[in-house]
Specification:
about 65% helix; about 90 residues
């Protein structure tokens, strides 16, 4: 679960593409589908639907913020030009 919370924004940051917002929209429902089918873990408990919706919203929001930050600062803007002159 923590891996998905970190992976989706990271992939959005690296790709800089708005299409990366599809990752949490597909990934979280698949995660909970797997839990329900006992493909991994021990299934879901009461109120799992609320957790699924909450994590999907958090995933989309954090990925959108990561993409926006990545698009604000173009690649190579913060390249090091050697040691600072002192």
């Amino acid at each position: 679960m923590v891996a998905l919370l970190i992976a989706f924004p990271f992939l959005g940051l690296v790709s800089c593409r708005w299409s990366a917002l599809l990752l949490p929209l597909v990934g979280w429902p698949l995660f909970y589908l797997g839990l329900n089918q006992a493909w991994w873990g021990y299934g879901t408990g009461d109120g799992w639907q609320f957790a699924a919706v909450l994590l999907t919203v958090i995933g989309v929001g954090s990925t959108a913020i990561a993409i926006a930050v990545a698009r604000t600062f173009p690649r190579g803007q913060f390249k090091s030009h050697g040691p600072a002159a002192g």
